[in-house]
TrEMBL record:
Keywords: Membrane, Transmembrane, Transmembrane helix
InterPro entries in alphabetical order: DUF4126
Ranges of residues in domain DUF4126: 23-188
Segments crossing the lipid bilayer: 20-44, 56-76, 171-195
Keyword Hydrolase: no
Coiled-coil segments: none
Name the record gives this protein: DUF4126 domain-containing protein
Stretches the record annotates as Disordered: 205-228
Keyword Protein biosynthesis: no
């Protein structure tokens, strides 16, 4: 009987660690994309979905504030170049917010576990924020404006899906975060390669194909002189 109880205890502890890891991974990654949506979703899942989240997330004032900030970001995030400024402002806010959210979620854990989880969430938020900001700069260079809205809506959907997985299926959340991070790294590499190619093409267009040099004389103004 004692062995069975011990095994059951180890299984329960393992499930708890697994659930915590998935929750932190999902919340950390999603916070780097949209911190306010994460806070609002945790509150909604806690109030209406039966999720076990700290009471602070289900408070009405927190839900209202997070919802209002999410609406502001929802609009700003779809306006070219204004979204770049918004991302710049949130370069520190999103990772620090992820640290705070993780700290609250792990309030019942030990001090070291709480600190490690918070730092992990902040690190994931930093990476996902960097991927988001980098891709947005490239998207804003696109001539048509609709691509910005499409990317923004896709990110909103990813945040909702990842937070939902973090709350309901932590293992799937971990897998999803790993896949998204790898895909994001590949995307950033592609964006940088395309940006470097565009820069080279722009420099080539700036050069004069015949090597002409414009010289100025006091007598007759501008005059082209071949070579030089």
């Amino acid at each position: 009987m004692r062995r069975a109880d011990s095994a059951a205890g180890r299984d329960a502890a393992g499930d708890a660690m697994e659930g915590l890891a998935g929750l932190i991974a999902g919340v950390g990654y999603a916070s780097g994309l949209n911190l306010y949506a994460v806070v609002a979703l945790l509150g909604l899942f806690g109030r209406y979905g039966g999720a076990d989240v700290p009471a602070v997330f289900v408070r009405t004032d927190v839900l209202v504030l997070a919802g209002l900030l999410f609406l502001v970001e929802f609009v700003v995030d779809k306006i070219p170049y204004l979204d770049d400024l918004w991302d710049l402002v949130h370069t520190a806010i999103r990772p620090l917010g992820a640290v705070g959210v993780a700290w609250l979620l792990t309030g019942d854990a030990g001090a070291w576990e709480q600190a490690g989880s918070s730092l992990a969430a902040g690190g994931l938020a930093t990476v996902s924020h960097a991927i988001k900001a980098t891709t947005r700069v490239a998207v804003n260079a696109s001539p048509e404006p609709i691509s910005n809205s499409i990317v923004s809506l896709t990110e909103d959907g990813l945040v909702a899906a990842v937070v939902w997985l973090a709350v309901t299926n932590p293992v799937a959340a971990i897998v999803a975060v790993v896949v998204l991070l790898v895909a994001g790294a590949v995307l950033v590499a592609f964006v940088w390669r395309a940006a470097r190619r565009s820069w080279r093409q722009w420099r080539r267009r700036r050069r004069r194909p015949d090597g002409d040099v414009v010289t100025r004389t006091a007598a007759n103004g501008d005059r082209r002189r071949p070579g030089a």
